[in-house]
């Protein structure tokens, strides 16, 4: 037979279709198929398989199936196996499942495994379990698919139980089985289960597989055990870039930026290993809390050297690093020079300005982001709402709320928590309560936002009721929860309740932070329990060096005329900061209350000397969606004359009202 003739045989033509598809040349596969005069079931399956292997070609695979049925060929198990791999969504997969059932391949092992893989891919644990339950012969692929479905549905414990059943049934776990389980343990922070899986790997004496070793590194790093991860890393014979990236990002995520940089330097010294954009992003994100001039800026230079200037991924982490160092101008310059910007980049600009308290610029970037056609996500919306809360911009917050509804984020707990916080801080507690009531399953952050709202509005009883609801829901209160509770007790003078919550924190191992001490000292001082407040301040690890707590005590000493303790509190502050003008003013008031006028005159001379050169206080107000800013002694506002005239009018009205009151008396 000649070569030309041999190429016309169906067997070779089928192989050509497969060969071209594996070489990413689907057009040639289709041409061979179109040129065939005699086609059989194998031919159709070869082309369906070719299209099913290629992303975004599912429609073509089903088009070939339609032609196959038209020509009178009946699909077999190979057809369905390929089609299930081509399903781009679960609905199409379910329709193929119906055809499997109709034609009679529901008990075919290959088809069952493909069905299991499809449902597992889309996280449909219920359907996957039904298919798995009907399988008589379960191989490692079937078990892995079922374990994968459990992990994708955040059912790690169920996945581990399935792993136990797999071993009990005599099916040998593969390297992929262990990698899946370790990834699940890392994602959920379950280091105990992770260590058990690691022990099983050692007992089974599995070969040193790099992907499995990387899964171990990732699990230990995500669970906070970077030292254990580093021990494993050191003994790896041939760590790949994933290994290096896992360790560098592990140190960065666990707050050890110095080690992240040290590993990065070691990597750069290895001539055959070139850092990629993930490496750079990981090490840069770890240097946010370190001085930019020593770490961040040299890394920025390295980014330019390696040619990753245009990487959106790397650019976003550089912006984050500059904002963490308080260098907003550097972040803005970098942002303006980036050729392409995605949602994450814009969100970094919004969140960065929000963290620095530059709420006006945060809102500006939020509006620009929308103007450029970027789709909002829950993180960008949450940051914009936080800015509206801090800036007391109710109208802007209401506009963002309407966008939340339009974008479908009404049920997002993070967004709802920020909405509650925004309305509460803007004084609209009814709106905050309404938003909170619409959340079907609020998380702790959402509960904390509502608690904070009640606390700031002096509604201690409502805050306490809400706290009891938190406990009923089975949620574990955190430090933020108790700041709101203690603050509410402080506002309303509820000493007994405050002490109860303070002790509740101790019993449950929740560390008392500065804000907790501040609330508790304020509560005791308002109740006149000044000696108890002094004892509490001295108990705090930061008490002796914290001016705020002593200043709270000093302020209350003026009210209760406790001269001796007041002078002691003032002395504690002035030892740390001789020019603390707030303390000097309070001390002056204390001397005045005690009738020591010579000391008052001395304090006022000191105050006059310290206040010169101080930055003036700022205030702002939102009118017609525009923020107006004012500062002490500033006459630059274009409507300053109107403001003075209005103030004069109000003063005249007050004088007139006072005259009427006197005449009536």
Automatic annotation (TrEMBL):
GO terms for molecular function: RNA binding. Transmembrane segments: none annotated. It comes from the Eukaryota. Residues 633-660 form a coiled coil. PPR repeats lie at residues 40-75, 139-173, 240-274, 342-376, 443-477, 478-512. Gene3D superfamilies: Tetratricopeptide repeat domain. GO terms for biological process: plant organ development; RNA modification. InterPro entries: E_motif, PPR_At4g14850-like_plant, PPR_rpt, TPR-like_helical_dom_sf. Keywords: Coiled coil, Repeat. This is Pentatricopeptide repeat-containing protein. It comes from Papaver nudicaule.
């Amino acid at each position: 037979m000649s070569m030309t003739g041999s190429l016309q045989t169906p067997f070779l033509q089928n192989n050509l279709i497969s060969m071209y598809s594996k070489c990413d040349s689907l057009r040639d596969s289709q041409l061979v198929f179109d040129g065939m005069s005699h086609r059989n079931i194998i031919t159709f399956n070869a082309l369906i398989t070719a299209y099913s292997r290629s992303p975004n070609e599912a429609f073509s695979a089903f088009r070939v199936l339609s032609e196959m049925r038209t020509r009178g060929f009946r699909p077999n198990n190979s057809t369905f196996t390929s089609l299930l791999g081509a399903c781009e969504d679960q609905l199409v997969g379910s329709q193929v499942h119906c055809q499997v059932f109709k034609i009679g391949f529901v008990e075919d092992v290959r088809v069952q495994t493909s069905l299991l893989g499809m449902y597992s891919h889309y996280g449909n644990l219920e359907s996957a379990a039904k298919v798995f339950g009907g399988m008589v012969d379960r191989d490692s692929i079937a078990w892995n698919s079922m374990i994968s479905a459990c992990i994708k549905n955040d059912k790690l414990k169920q996945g581990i139980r399935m792993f136990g059943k797999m071993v009990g049934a005599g099916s040998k776990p593969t390297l992929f089985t262990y990698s899946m389980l370790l990834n699940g343990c890392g994602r959920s922070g379950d280091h105990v289960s992770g260590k058990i899986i690691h022990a099983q790997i050692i007992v089974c004496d599995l070969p040193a597989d790099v992907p499995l070793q990387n899964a171990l590194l990732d699990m230990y790093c995500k669970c906070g055990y970077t030292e254990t991860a580093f021990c494993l890393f050191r003994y790896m014979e041939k760590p790949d870039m994933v290994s290096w990236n896992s360790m560098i990002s592990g140190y960065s995520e666990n707050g050890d930026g110095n080690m992240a940089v040290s590993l990065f330097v070691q990597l750069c010294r290895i001539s055959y290993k070139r850092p990629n954009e993930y490496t750079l992003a990981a090490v840069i994100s770890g240097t946010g809390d370190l001085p930019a001039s020593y770490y961040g800026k040299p890394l920025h230079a390295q980014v330019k050297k390696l040619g990753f200037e245009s990487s959106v991924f790397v650019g976003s982490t550089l912006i984050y690093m500059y904002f963490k160092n308080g260098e907003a101008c550097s972040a803005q310059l970098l942002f303006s020079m980036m050729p392409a910007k995605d949602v994450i980049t814009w969100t970094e600009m919004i969140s960065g300005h929000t963290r620095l308290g530059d709420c006006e610029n945060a809102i500006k970037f939020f509006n620009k982001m929308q103007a450029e056609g970027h789709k909002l996500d829950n993180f960008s919306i949450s940051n914009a709402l936080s800015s509206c809360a801090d800036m007391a911009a109710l109208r802007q917050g209401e506009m963002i709320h309407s966008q939340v509804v339009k974008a479908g984020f009404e049920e997002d707990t993070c967004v709802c928590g920020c909405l509650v916080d925004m309305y509460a801080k803007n004084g609209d507690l009814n709106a905050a309560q309404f938003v909170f009531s619409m959340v079907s399953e609020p998380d702790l952050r959402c509960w904390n936002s509502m608690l904070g709202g009640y606390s700031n509005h002096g509604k201690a009883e409502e805050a306490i009721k809400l706290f009891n609801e938190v406990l009923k829901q089975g949620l574990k209160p955190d430090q933020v929860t108790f700041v709101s509770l203690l603050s509410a007790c402080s506002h309303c003078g509820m000493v007994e309740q405050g002490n109860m919550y303070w002790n509740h924190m101790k019993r449950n191992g929740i560390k008392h932070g500065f804000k907790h001490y501040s609330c508790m000292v304020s509560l005791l001082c308002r109740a006149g329990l000044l000696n108890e407040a002094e004892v509490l301040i001295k108990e705090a690890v930061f008490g002796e060096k914290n001016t705020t707590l002593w200043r709270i005590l000093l302020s209350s000493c003026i009210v209760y005329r406790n001269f001796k303790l007041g002078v002691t509190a003032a002395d504690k502050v002035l030892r740390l900061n001789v020019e603390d003008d707030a303390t000097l003013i309070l001390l002056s008031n204390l001397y005045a209350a005690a009738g020591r006028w010579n000391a008052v005159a001395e304090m006022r001379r000191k105050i006059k000397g310290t206040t010169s050169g101080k930055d003036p206080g700022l205030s702002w107000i939102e009118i017609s969606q525009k923020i107006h800013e004012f500062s002490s002694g500033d006459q630059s506002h274009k409507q300053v004359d109107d403001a003075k005239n209005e103030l004069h009018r109000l003063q005249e009205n007050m004088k007139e009202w006072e005259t009427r009151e006197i005449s009536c008396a």
